Amino acid sequence: MATLRMLEDSGVIVRIDPGLEPNELINRCLYGTTDFMQWLENELPNIEYNPMYADLTPMEQVAAMFSEYVTGMNFSTDRRFKKLNRTPSFNVWELKTEDVRIFGWVPQKDHFICACADSAPKIKQHDLYEGYMGQTKRVMDGMDLDEPKYLEGMEYSDVISNEN
Questions:
Q1: How large is the C-alpha radius of gyration of the chain?
Q2: How far apart are CA 137 and CA 103, in angstroms?
């Protein structure tokens, strides 16, 4: 079994660097699986969006959300970060922007592993939530991570601390 640090050192997961300003501090850790990182690089730039409804491109939306998550901004009041209730036993959480949905889990407090993602319109139109939750669960189960592999709980305070 492995720790997050061991998985990062072996390249199984990658720590996401949202490009913080010099005066910003890291309060939480954000990781991506290698598949997620490929999606981030290859698919995210191609997500279509309507500039009439979003001031930022999907890439800019995700970059801003990642920065806010890592620096400890408050996520408990605007539903950008939530546990998905369709299959609560899977312990899958969602990070979301106007145009993007990112699925992952919380292996320890203030740490999130991004497993998969897609455009919000596509997920909603084709009702793909359960498929992405299942995919996230398979990734989690297949990862050689020390038990318990995830934190249980429905409340933000169960998985996030130090909200600014």
A1: 15
A2: 10
Q: What is the pLDDT of residue 161?
A: 84
C-alpha angle 12-34-43 in degrees, rounded to nearest 5: 170
Name the phi and psi angles at 160, rounded to 5. -130, 135
Residues of the chain under the 50 pLDDT cut? none
Helix, strand, coil percentages, rounded to 5, for the chain: 35, 20, 40
Q: How many Cβ atoms sit within 10 Å of the Cβ of residue 105?
A: 24
Q: Which residues contact 28 (CB under 8 A, 6 or more apart)?
A: 69, 70, 71, 72, 110, 111, 112, 160, 162
Q: Which residue has the tokens 């913080």?
A: 20
